Write the structure tokens for this entry.
Amino acid sequence: MALAQQSSPHTRRARSTSNVMLWVMLATLPGLLAQVVFFGWGNLINVLWCIALAVGAEAAMLRLRKRPVMFFLRDNTAALTGLLLGLSLPPLAPFWVSAVAVLAAIILAKQLYGGLGSNPFNPAMVGYALVLISFPVAMTTNWAAPGLFGDSAPGFWETLRIIAAGQQSTVDAFTMATPLDYYKHNISSQTATEVLQHPSFGEGIAKGWEWVNAGFLAGGAVLLWMRLITWHIPVSLLAGLAIMSLAFGSNPDLYAPLSMHLLAGGTMLGAFFIATDPVSAATSHQGKLIYGAGIGVLIYLIRTWGAYPDAVAFGVLLMNFAVPFIDYYTPPRTYGHRKPRRGLPGRNQG
Amino acid sequence: MTQLWDFSGGIHPDENKHLSTARPIEQPSLPDRLILPLQQHIGAPAETCVSVGERVLKGQVIATVTDAIGVPVHAPTSGTIEAISMHPVPHPSGMSDQCIILVPDGLDEWTERDAIADYHSMDRDAILERIRDYGVAGLGGAGFPTNIKLRPPRDRKVSTLILNGAECEPYITADDMTMRERADEIVSGLRIMAWILRPERCVIAIEDNKPEAIKAVKKATENTRTEVVVIPTRYPSGGEKQLIQILTGMEVPSGGIPADIGVMCQNTGTAIAVSRAIHRGEPLISRVTTITGRALSNPGTYDVLLGTPIEHLLAQAGVDKQQLNRLILGGPMMGYTLETPGIPVVKTTNCVIAATAEELPAPPPEQPCIRCGMCAEACPMELLPQQLFWHSRAGELEKAEHLNLFDCIECGVCSYVCPSSIPLVQYYRAAKGEIRVQQAEHLKADRARERFEARQARLEREQQEKEQRKKDRAKAAAEAQAKKQAETEIAEAGGQPADDRAAKSTLVEEALARKKAKAAAKTANEATSPNTAVADAAPLDLEALEKQLSQATAKLNTMQSMLEDAKAESADNVEKLERAVAKNHDRVKRAEQALAEARN
């Protein structure tokens, strides 16, 4: 009778990392559905292409790094990175643009840093930022939200052909600037009412975008309810953004209104699915609040006064830089201690 | 309704308590052998006071503790001492220790029992002494001697006495069954403890998943001021620190004891042991233990004689050896696996789980930490488990300590919730062990340095004293010589000088003249007669020179040994010592030469 030797605890909760990642992926479905409904098949094609490429790149890198390939592929994290990129990239982005983003994310931002758990920056946002900086105009206009105006919307095969053709600017017939971009560039010469006449705003706040954001918000609520993420980062991010908007941009004739900041662009996807990437986020509750609020504030600053119409990627990456610092100064107060032990050993002992 | 507070984190693992609560507490049959470790808990090991072959009675002391910390061991039944030898004992390392092996004779014959009729009339110290003499140690946790726990530091007043009946860990039902069936004894033990401590408040805390125990204890405490508090079921509510937080809202200071905030926790089983020691005059020789797990056909709760081998109990509970995969001593959250079922039940053994492979499967392979923070959400001590893990794994022990590694109670909830299946607690244990080793080494190095410095100072002092003595002697000798010479010369001069100065100058002149004459005489007589003028001076010189030589040699030896020590410890004064040795070497040579010359 050979008895098994194990260290305590002897029992575990069944929730595994692959399971967690799978649920996060499933939670993006409402947002993806809204994207397909309002912006066409582009995002779905992007998502599938990005996931396939991400998993392939991960497998190749694991092989090169002499790591067990199947063991790590099963954690679903590469697929999630691909999924998030597919959701973030404009629907008609050529296949090679998504490829550049995915390969940069998996190879550069993740595997070269040591793979899962060792990357200081959010891989998906590294890939996204790379192509955004490389093709700033095309990313926000040419390939962006195709107007779904009656019969002019491209069908599945047409969309696939456009993406696969990989042309930079042949799709003007379907596309237009994102609402945030349009507002930003036209509010200096027009009033808010005039700007909002533009078809990209539709009946509501930003045609289709509000539904996409609502979809991601719903998915985020599921993650919260399942306790796969905590409320700290999404809430502080949205609060940071809202407070900045109310403090500086309350006049819609000068700046985009709060509703636009929250519901047009990548705000909800960023708040619930991207900023909450645990590997590159702050760890304690207090740290998460600072981290999220920092992203919210940066999003507002860059959207309003920076060169880019949206800024989730930059906000997340800039706060990734700050994470080690935040972590050192925001440990929780341990049971039986008067105050938290901030900073490094040897200083501020509490 | 008593106000309850919340503690941070916690989990709800599968309880599996129903396995062992179906039947009342049972008495297993007498085993062939009882194995009684001399050390069953914290404190000094007991010393055997019986010899091999001796017949002992039930309840007789077979090993005593002379030290302050520690309690004696009693024979759990009557029988013969078969051996006093090394035997595997309950320990995570699977180590062996000195045990008394008792072969029961089946008569179960008691030694004389002296119950105390009225403990109120006795001195509190005498009661504590009796609790110690009757072998009572904590039955819940580490088995701290109860008499010491019941005597908190003088400046600490215990205002709240808590009986911990939470029993939050899955599978374990020993306290539950005890409360159901022996609530009166628990309350009587609590009364004794309360009489000793005089607290303002007595609380019996029970998790709400034990309705029958709650009912029984409530009935037993009717018309008393003891509060029975029902707390929500959530692991680890029965951890001392968490239970205190739930009941009082206070936190035990880090590194402190509950008495620091006026609280004391005792286990329900310990209360019974106290009650029996006083009211029945029975020492602690048995305890209630849960024998459970799905590899048993008949799991249950047993009143087990201490020293009973676990394999005997497994056989009683109908173990299926084909199915048995893991044998755990304690609960599934904090218990440890056993290598052999041959080890005995001791005072702290509350549960044995004989688990099948399906019941408690081997953990999946460890994946990288994704910093998801579920561990921090679950940690009842509000630590940052994943940061502790990073630092522990990277060997950054200082940082781990800074993040309060030593406040970790090793409850296991972080490992339990970890989606990457990282054995976090194991990493913390390793890091703690590493830090303790480092601290011990540090202490050792400090002590060695202090010892060396003290030795150095002592040698220097001795050297100085020696030199001082030598100087004093030389001075005294010189003075004596001068005086003697002066006296003889005065006598030789034959008359009293006109004044002192003149006398002195003449003395000096005469002395010089005499020396010259002596030297001349010496050279003149050297060849012919050595026994004339030189004869009276030579012995004195020789003696002094010999003394000088021996002193110089001694000093050289000392310096050389000091140098060796210094070299061995690579102290910074090696150079200095080397110079000193060389100097002394020269001195010895000179002295030897001088002596040789003088002898010629």
